[in-house]
Amino acid sequence: MNRQNIHVRVYTGGYHLIKKSGVGRAILHQISILKKYGIPVNDVPLSECQIVHINTVFPDSVLTAVYAKLKGIKVIWYGHSTMEDFRNSFTGSDFFAPAFKRWITFCYSLGDVIITPTEYSKRLLKSYGIKKPIYALTNGIDTDFWKKERSPEKKKEFLRRYNIPGGRKLVMSVGHFMKRKGLPEYIELAKEHPDITFLWFGHTDTVLVSAEIRHRMRHAPENLVFAGFVSPKELRTAYSFCDAFVFLSHEETEGIVVLEALACEIPTILRDIPVYEGRFENKENVYKIKTRKQLDEALSAVLSENHKSMTKNARLVTERLNLTNTGSKLMQIYER
């Protein structure tokens, strides 16, 4: 395959709507991978491309796929979304979940191939009756960028920014304001540990946040800081200087923020859900929990013990999922 003769369009229509999400990160990863492999990306009009990547399921994405097929352009549709991770997310998501499943099945079926982040999400998409080839390929992680910072000055600046007294234990999480991300449980955890400062990074437009979540956030304890959406550099600093990353999401197709946290060597506690099977091992590179008692035990262990061995193991996992290795596998899909 002569890479210089292949022009690729990574479709970015509607990017402003998803740039703060994992899908937005995935789009940037794809562009970075293609450039790393010397493939011209987004440098000519779509009509002159041989391949188009589509990552969203908006109506304009469908129009782009139809146009591409009429022009003989190969369509790679990235299956980031499932009905399962649409539930318990935004206002009305449970009611619309069955319709959403039908819609994404239609969208993905327009692809010549579908790429989805994990074997778990691949199984889900196959269960929808999709007949097109489906490949499990991680979104990848830029391990050159996502790595632990060690500057004492940066730590002092981080603590000043959030008005955190020195010596406080710091626990963090990242995600949209939604039930699926485990925000209610995170708020309860903060209530029961007033001696620990909890931070939640991420933001969701108020219109999309369910009434239940808005109520819980209004009654969150003072030791829980809603830090909002921050730049990747600021998030890397948080991963580097907090004492634990607690991600209680009930459903994911991959969880890019988990890879970021592990790459930055922060001790990590995850809800034990199917997507992590075969990727992370309990007490080897993360703590996996199913019950509230296990969560309390894991948090106590993380904050009181040395976890250098676990975090080093976690870093090794992310290095296997770095953009170079992801790109190599993407090139194999191109060849096919």
Overall shape:
globular
Roughly what percent helix? Answer: 40-55%
Q: Tell me the name of the CATH homologous superfamily of the largest domain.
A: Glycogen Phosphorylase B
Mean pLDDT: 95
Count of DSSP E strands?
Answer: 11
Note the gap between the termini: 10 Å
Strand order of the largest sheet: 8-7-6-9-10-11
Main sheet: strands, sense, barrel: 6 strands, parallel
- Quaternary organization: single chain
- From the helix content, strand content and strand pairing, which structural class follows? alpha/beta
Would you identify the CATH architecture of the largest domain? Answer: 3-Layer(aba) Sandwich
Q: If helices are DSSP runs of H or I spanning 4 or more residues, what is the number of helices? A: 14
Supply the number of structural domains: 2
Keywords:
alpha/beta, 14 helices, 5-stranded parallel beta sheet, 6-stranded parallel beta sheet, 336 residues, Rossmann fold, 2 domains
Polypeptide structure, described:
- The chain is α/β, with parallel strands linked by helices.
- The protein has two domains: 3-140 and 322-335, Rossmann fold (3-Layer(aba) Sandwich); 152-320, 3-Layer(aba) Sandwich (Rossmann fold), CATH 3.40.50.
- Helix content is 43%, strand content 14%.
- It is built from 14 helices and eleven strands.
- It has helices at 15-18, 22-36, 59-70, 83-86, 93-108, 119-127, 152-161, 183-192, 211-218, 232-241, 256-263, 292-304, 308-320, 323-335; strands spanning 8-10, 51-54, 74-78, 113-116, 134-136, 169-174, 196-201, 224-228, 244-247, 268-271, 287-289.
- The strands form two sheets. The protein has a six-stranded parallel sheet with strand order 8-7-6-9-10-11, sandwiched between helices. It has a five-stranded parallel sheet with strand order 1-2-3-4-5, with helices on both faces.
- Strand 4 (113-116), helix 6 (119-127) and strand 5 form a beta-alpha-beta unit.
- The longest helix has 16 residues, at 93-108.
- The chain starts with 7 loop residues before the first strand and ends with a helix.
- The mean pLDDT is 95.
